[in-house]
Each structure stands twice: as C-alpha cells, then as structure tokens.
Design goal:
The longest helix is centred in the N-terminal third of the chain and has 23 residues, at 30-52. The protein is built from 8 helices and no strands. Helix content is 66%, strand content 0%. The protein has 194 residues and is mostly helical. It has helices at residues 15-26, 30-52, 55-71, 82-99, 119-138, 141-151, 157-164, 168-186. Helix 6 packs across helix 8 (168-186). The N and C termini lie far apart (37 Å).
C-alpha cells in the first residue's frame, strides 16, 4: 500500500470539476471522458492490481471497467460519486473474471521505484514494502478490497459497502479485520526468553 503522501502523483478531480466532466461525457464528449480516465486510471489500476495480483489482468479489468462506464454513462446519476460508481463497475468485472477459467495468481512486482536513499535504507524500505505487499496479498480478497478502498482511495464505509455490495457494518468490519491481520503479520515476534 502507498502512503497518503504518495497520492500526489495520482491526479484527482475536485467534485465540481468531476461533475462538469461527467455531464460533458454524458452529452457525448470523448475528451471529457478522457479526462475522467486520466484522473482515475492510476487509482483504479493500482487497486485492481492489488486484488488480481497480475498486471495484465489488472490492465484488462481497468479497461473493461472504463468501457462499461462509457457504455453505461447515461445510467450514472449526476451528483453522486463517480469514482465510487467506477470502482463498483471494476469490482463487478473482477468478480465476473473470477468465475471464468485461468485465474492464476502472479507475484507482486519487484521493480519498486528508487528515490536515491542510502543503500541500507533502500534495502530496508524494499524489504518492508515487500513484507507489506505480501501481507496485503495474503488477506482474504473481501478484506483486501475493503481495506484498499479505505486506505488508498479514502472512500467512506458507505461507498465501500456500495462497491462491494455489502452493508456498511460489513465494510467497516472487513477493514477492521484486515488491519488487525496486517498488524499481526507485520509485528516483529518478541525474542524468546532463555
């Protein structure tokens, strides 16, 4: 998972601007829809990658979600959260893909970006990111989906419930359980006493 400070490289639209682009896209503007794709592709892809654990599958699912959003844009209700609606479409695409054959899991990427720290910091940072990535990947899919929507996307429990087709209480419980399991799996074991 990425820190909140890392979200700066992901464009995001203010609600008023998003509403303007959605209305223009609903009126048939491909340029406006392209702006929505630019704004939400990185976030959607990252979330799908962490769920599917396969780059190609995440790309296919993200493309499918945007195509379905474009095809069903007339069904989107202005004034509601476009990002939550888009993530719901992607979640449904993910569920549909898991019903079919060939659902193999891939390992997490090893090409983590460098930011020129000292070599020992780089090694420790990569190890921690890998441990965190493996711990997130080990979470049950439902817990992982809810946790990533909350932690990386900052969505409300109501929005998470809508996307994952559960109740708000279930969404809250899944995030809580995911955090508990992550803390337990990342907590260093106390040394055994002799």
């Amino acid at each position: 998972m990425r820190a909140a400070a890392d979200q700066a490289d992901t464009p995001s639209l203010p609600p008023a601007e998003e509403a303007r682009w959605v209305l223009a896209a609903q009126a048939g503007s491909r340029e406006a829809f392209g702006r929505l794709v630019e704004a939400y592709w990185p976030r959607l892809y990252r979330w799908l990658f962490q769920l599917a654990q396969n780059r190609h599958a995440a790309e296919d699912l993200a493309q499918d979600a945007f195509l379905r959003a474009w095809e069903n844009l007339n069904r989107f209700q202005p004034g509601t959260n476009f990002r939550a609606w888009l993530f719901r479409i992607a979640h449904n695409a993910l569920l549909n893909s898991r019903r079919g054959p060939g659902n193999r899991r891939a390992t997490l990427p090893t090409d983590l970006p460098d930011h020129e720290p000292r070599p020992e910091e780089t090694l420790l940072g990569r190890e921690m990111l890998q441990r965190l990535g493996h711990a997130v990947a080990a979470l049950p899919a439902d817990w992982r989906a809810a946790l990533l929507l909350r932690a990386e996307e900052g969505l409300s429990f109501r929005q998470i419930a809508s996307i994952t087709e559960t109740t708000e209480e279930t969404a809250r419980w899944r995030v809580y359980k995911a955090r508990q399991q992550l803390l337990a799996s990342l907590d260093p074991q106390p040394p055994e006493s002799s």
